[in-house]
């Protein structure tokens, strides 16, 4: 049973892995032609959104988006914060409006990741920080990344669901 | 239904947060080298945690890669031995030329400029942003070890970037592929009979080439020429390898030439880099070694 309070810690560990380990797992032959960005933290936040609620996902999205902004990227603060929080909140709406199911969660992850990539790219283009054309970015980054994250989401679904449902049970017990 | 979903309060919050984010982005945009202390604190702690994970995982991945490449390594080794003997001959020739250079300099009483005196500090890469937009890496030297913004960062193959921001124990290095909003590199192509000067002002992400502009029309630059930093821009020291020219074309308005340069350094698998530190040595004319490597 993983306690609820460990959630920030788990997300932090995943965040650290994102910037370090996962890069070395991508084979060299692909690396020059495609850019695969495993957004593990985003996947977890989307799962939190679809299974717990939009407020939690929003807060975690804000915090970990801000962490990513500060630690990695010098020029501007706000791009990852905004995008992660937005996608977290929107995926939390799924919790409210629809009945939960495996396919819905996976679909939300795929769409949410695509929206996240679009949002980040859009803000970078808006602020003139990159000149990669949309079509190039689409073929080399967005689509491979969404596919990769989709597969990762399928892998992570069962452990994440077990962990989150134990968290909800704890909360319900507290409220009684 | 959309209205009911949005509600007054939510719409207001959304609008305010959009405005807030726009303000934050506008304020922080534009190359801040000096970071606020909460940022520095966060960067240091997180980078330290990342440093614990990065090197071991690199070693593990490297081990597996090496095992699969064993045959390739064998063939490569044979080829390298052949070229090594040729390089030995070139080195002998180079020594002769260096000695001649010394004599001629002394005769003309040349003084070495400060730009050629520098020392290298070894740093390890701690983390890397996997995105394509923002190519920065974090290295494990910071202001405590004397790193300042704008120092050049190289690997044995060539220039890779410039120190962008510095916190106490770690620094961010902006790679040359991120030159959109970075500093320009003043470079020179080693052409004969005289070198061609230009400024590296951009990067083409689709093919991975640096764009060198403002080369004079009559300069004899052509494909295959080596490009190094010229030291004239006073940000990067002189003589750091940048790459090789792959294409030369007419520049803007036809008044200058533009060259596309393939970077000599591999920007993907970075693990150890050198930070070039300028040391202010009071120079005497014709010092012992000529240009430092």
Would you give an account of this structure?
- The complex is a heterodimer of chains A (176) and B (293).
- Chain A is mainly alpha-helical and 176 residues long.
- In chain A, 79% of the residues lie in helices and 0% in strands.
- Chain A is built from eight helices and no strands.
- Chain A has helices at 7-19, 21-25, 28-31, 40-51, 54-72, 79-97, 102-126, 134-175.
- Chain A starts with 6 loop residues before the first helix and ends with a helix.
- Chain B is an alpha+beta fold.
- Chain B is built from three helices and twelve strands.
- Chain B has helices at residues 2-28, 37-68, 70-108; strands at 118-128, 136-139, 152-155, 158-166, 171-175, 185-189, 196-204, 209-215, 226-229, 241-250, 257-263, 272-278.
- Chain B starts with a helix and ends in a 15-residue tail after the last strand.
- Residues 110-115 and 281-293 of chain B have low confidence and may be disordered.
- At the A-B interface, helix 1, helix 2, helix 5, helix 6 and helix 7 of A face helix 1, helix 2 and strand 1 of B.
- The helix tally of chain A amounts to 8
How much of the sequence lies in strands of chain B comes to: 25-35%
The value of Rg of chain B in angstroms is: 23 Å
Q: Order of strands across the widest beta sheet of chain B? A: 1-2-5-4-3-12
The parts of chain B where pLDDT drops under 50 for at least 5 residues are 110-115, 281-293
The number of distinct β-strands of chain B equals 12
Order of helices and strands of chain B: HHHEEEEEEEEEEEE
Distance between the termini of chain B: 70 Å
Largest sheet of chain B: 6 strands, antiparallel, barrel
Distance between the termini of chain A: 19 Å
The overall pLDDT average of chain A reads 79
Estimate the global geometry of chain B from the Cα principal axes.
globular
H/E topology pattern of chain A:
HHHHHHHH
- Average pLDDT figure of chain B: 78
Give the uncertain stretches of chain A in residue-range form: none
The percent range for strand residues of chain A is under 5%
| Percent in helix of chain B | 25-40%
Outline the biggest β-sheet of chain A: none
């Amino acid at each position: 049973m993983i306690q609820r309070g460990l959630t920030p810690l788990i997300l932090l560990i995943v965040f650290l892995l994102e910037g370090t380990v996962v890069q070395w797992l991508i084979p060299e032959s692909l690396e020059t032609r495609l850019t695969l960005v495993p957004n593990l933290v985003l996947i977890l936040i989307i799962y939190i959104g679809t299974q717990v609620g939009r407020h939690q996902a929003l807060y975690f999205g804000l915090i970990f988006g801000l962490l990513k902004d500060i630690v990695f990227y010098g020029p501007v603060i706000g791009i990852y914060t905004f995008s992660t929080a937005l996608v977290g909140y929107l995926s939390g709406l799924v919790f409210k409006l629809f009945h939960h199911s495996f396919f819905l969660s996976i679909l939300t992850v795929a769409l949410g990741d695509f929206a996240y990539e679009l949002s980040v790219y859009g803000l970078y283009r808006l602020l003139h920080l990159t000149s990669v054309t949309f079509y190039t970015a689409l073929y080399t980054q967005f689509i491979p990344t969404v596919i990769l994250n989709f597969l990762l989401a399928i892998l992570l679904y069962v452990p994440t669901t077990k962990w989150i449902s134990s968290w909800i049970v704890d909360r319900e017990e507290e409220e009684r | 239904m959309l209205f009911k979903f949005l509600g007054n309060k939510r719409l207001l919050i959304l609008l305010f947060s959009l405005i807030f984010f726009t303000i934050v982005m506008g304020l922080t945009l534009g190359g801040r080298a000096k970071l606020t202390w909460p940022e520095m604190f966060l960067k240091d702690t997180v980078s330290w945690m990342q440093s614990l994970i990065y090197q071991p995982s690199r070693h593990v991945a490297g081990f597996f890669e090496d095992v699969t490449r064993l045959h390739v390594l064998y063939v490569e080794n044979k080829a390298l031995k052949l070229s090594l003997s040729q390089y030995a001959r070139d080195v002998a020739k180079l020594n002769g030329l260096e000695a001649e250079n010394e004599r001629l300099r002394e005769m003309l009483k040349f003084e070495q400029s400060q730009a050629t005196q520098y020392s290298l500090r070894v740093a390890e890469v701690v983390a890397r942003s996997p995105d394509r937009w923002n190519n920065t890496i974090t290295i494990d030297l910071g202001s405590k070890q004397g790193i300042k913004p704008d120092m050049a960062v190289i690997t044995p193959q060539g220039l890779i970037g410039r120190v962008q921001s510095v916190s106490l124990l770690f620094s961010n290095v902006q790679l040359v592929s991120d030159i959109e909003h970075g500093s320009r590199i003043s470079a020179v192509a080693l052409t004969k009979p005289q070198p061609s000067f230009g400024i590296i002002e951009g990067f083409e992400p689709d093919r991975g080439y640096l764009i060198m502009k403002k080369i004079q029309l009559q300069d004899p630059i052509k494909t295959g020429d080596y490009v190094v930093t010229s030291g004239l821009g006073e940000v990067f020291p002189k003589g750091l390898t940048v790459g090789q020219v792959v294409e030369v074309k007419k520049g803007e308005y036809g008044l200058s030439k533009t060259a596309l340069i393939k970077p000599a350094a591999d920007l993907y698998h970075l693990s150890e880099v050198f930070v070039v530190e300028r040391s202010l040595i009071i120079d005497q004319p014709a010092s012992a070694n000529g240009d430092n490597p």
